[in-house]
């Protein structure tokens, strides 16, 4: 049986874990929410960044500013520190996935890359669109698919990603760096992801 250990938490099939989501929109409230969650008997803490991002006025313009990304990383760093021994899951849900955010695939990929390169999240939850049958079905935006962006991250980072759409985790090591490969249960060949 394959297992994945992040901090002091062991993830394996048949052993459910409890995650507490952080849903606030203001940085101070997100931090306070994380402080409360860290005291709870949960296994993981999930930052629903779509909630935070949906509360930003003129998000399209803000995403062009360097200060936004510095502030974003500061929040992520604070959350990782406060979570202590509990892994932090980074999640960004679109409206179609029950979330609060509508970004282009390119914008999502840029944020996922930032989070992955920072090394501050123990897991990154990437959802396949509801219409996708396999990882290859993820639609393209501007000629660059989210899958291609995540494949690129797989080479550069050791942060595992999860998807709740029929995927399971398998620990792998590529070129000396530990990464995580996701494989579609309905596919016979591996889909390389981060």
Write up this protein:
The protein is an alpha/beta fold. The protein is 34% helix and 24% strand. It has helices at residues 27-39, 49-54, 59-62, 66-83, 105-118, 146-156, and strands at residues 3-6, 9-12, 19-22, 44-48, 88-91, 123-125, 140-141, 144-145, 161-162, 167-174, 177-184. It has a five-stranded parallel sheet with strand order 3-4-5-6-9. Strands 1-2 form a two-stranded antiparallel sheet. Helix 1 (27-39) links the parallel strand 3 and strand 4 (44-48). Helix 1 (27-39) runs parallel beside helix 4 and helix 5 (105-118) packs parallel to helix 6. The longest helix is centred in the middle third of the chain and has 18 residues, at 66-83. The chain is globular, with a radius of gyration of 16 Å. The two termini are 20 Å apart. The model is unreliable at 134-144 and 161-194 (pLDDT under 50).
Task: Write a short abstract of this structure.
This protein has 6 helices and 11 strands. With 194 residues, the protein is α/β, with parallel strands linked by helices.
Tell me the distance between the termini: 20 Å
Give the DSSP E fraction (strand runs of 2 or more residues): 15-25%
The largest sheet is: 5 strands, parallel
Helix content: 25-40%
Give the overall pLDDT as a whole number.
74
User: pLDDT below 50 for ≥5 consecutive residues: which ranges?
Assistant: 134-144, 161-194
Query: Which descriptor suits the 3D outline?
Result: globular
Spatial strand order of the main sheet: 3-4-5-6-9
Q: What is the number of strand segments? A: 11
Order of secondary-structure elements: EEEHEHHHEHEEEHEEE
Number of separate helices: 6
* Secondary-structure class: alpha/beta
Radius of gyration: 16 Å
